[in-house]
Amino acid sequence: MSWASWSDFFAMGGYAVYVWGSYAVTAGLILAEVIMLGIRKRAAKARLAAGRGAGMP
Amino acid sequence: MSQPSLVVGNVNWFKYASPQSFYPLAGAMIPWFAWAAAALCAAGLYVGFFVAPTDHQQGESYRIIFIHVPAAWMSMFLYLVMAFWAGVGLVFNTRLSHMMASALAPTGALFTFLALWTGSLWGKPTWGTWWVWDARLTSELILLFLYFGFMALKAAIDDPRRADRAGAVLALVGVVNIPIIYYSVEWWNTLHQGASVSLTRAPTMAATMLTGMLLMALAAWMYSIAASLHRVRSVILERERGADWLRAL
Amino acid sequence: MLTALRCVIRRDLLLAMRRRSDVATALLFFVIVVSLFPLGVGPEPNLLREIAPGVIWVAALLASMLSLSRLFAADFADGTLEQMILSATPLGAIVAAKVVAHWLVSGLPLVLIAPVLALQFDLAQPLLPVLTVSLLLGTPVLSLIGAIGAALTLGVRGSGVLLSLLVLPLYVPVLIMGAGAVEAAAVGLDNAGHLLLLAAFLVGAAAFAPWAISAALRISME
Fold this sequence. Notes:
The structure holds three protein chains of three kinds. Helices cover 77% and strands 0% of the residues of chain A. By secondary structure, chain A is mainly α. By secondary structure, chain B is mostly helical. Chain B starts with 6 loop residues before the first strand and ends in a 10-residue tail after the last helix. Chain B has a domain at 64-197 and 204-238. In chain B, strands 1-2 form a two-stranded antiparallel sheet. By secondary structure, chain C is mostly helical. Chain C has one domain (2-221). In chain C, helix 3 runs parallel beside helix 8 (127-152). The longest helix of chain C is centred in the C-terminal third of the chain and has 30 residues, at 192-221. Chain A binds chain B through residues 1-3, 9, 12-15, 17-19, 21-23, 25-26, 29-30, 33-34, 37, 40-41, 44-45, 47-48, 51-52, 56-57, and chain B through 49-54, 59-61, 63-64, 67-68, 71, 106-107, 110, 113-114, 117-118, 121-122, 124-125, 223, 227, 230-231, 233-234, 237-238, 241-242, 246-247, 249.
């Protein structure tokens, strides 16, 4: 598949909104999930550390 | 008392059923799956955008299938895997299995949503409306509700053991119902439509399109594994809070 | 065992009769919801005739779901449920009996009143038996599946809405086949397939749901 030019590529034959709308939301949500995974891990570790500090058995 | 064992290659694999052993194992596996996902995704996108030709009927809008179909496949597959681990947890009373089921649900729900979102964006230029009541999209919508139900039930029950087991029963009931739901919706769809309105590609898909789709599907699979393993480690940290081995972390 | 089951049914029916308002409220809800649709979509007879099966079925679904929390709540509160779990009679059988009693009180009235409501929508006369049979076959399935949800959410906070979220996706096949049977008959297509599938759902649910309900009850009562 050879695109005539970059602007053709971005235009996606007139379907730019739909195609890039799909890919953008997908990328965004996957990124959001990865970020939330990190947040959850950090929060869990923080709670563990806090628990230990408070003298948990 | 003898512990049950599953020794393959000098390793008793059942030892990984304990959160303590599984935690480092999962941690070691995540990077492999994450990199595999990234590589497969790059390859899939390359094939999808620079190798696969334009479709005669749908023009460039068909390129959404490189997300839509893998997302739909993963949404169903992850539900099956989730129900499997929930069932294992019910039968063998292993809390790690239940933790794994909990870890899979959000990723599964995400893919279900993506299947719906991309399906909608694909339907608009193809059929003219933002929502198409075709069999697959409607089944995906119901699947999303099944995921939400599972997560909501687990969140609503305070006792983790009861939450695990209730969620497991729900997941198993759901998994039995999914084929019934899918075929009912298919039947409903063919009854109410004259021409068949379907977002599934006709068998005339070019080989390159199929390749791109498969690569993206594999990428989604690798990503799901990496994400679920990461999440289950957080679940372990949250739920095993009293345990001694955590102090070493 | 049959005497035990007869006892359970009699007891549940007796208790339901003592709180007739609960029963009546679900029925009234059904009637009101069905009456809301013409107010929402307009009184055009052709449109109403077309949406009648779907509207009545959805309303029956919702009304049936409303009464589900009642199924185990009272017995859970006063300790009878614990006794049922411990009793010699198989829990699956007891649970099936409870669902039968529940259906007699919450499902059957819907089946009986639906043809009257269908007349409000000017549904053609020959379609009324189809509607009744579809509801007759479908509402027990709704009770059986709903009971699983009720058992899972026993005593959980916010259980009413949670129950709906859990159970409505599972209701979809019954809705499709039930409403579909009437709609198929309306356009002159054969609707035996729909009704047979509904019957199959009923047999399947009757066979498997008691088992799932018992498992869920044991989990909830630990």
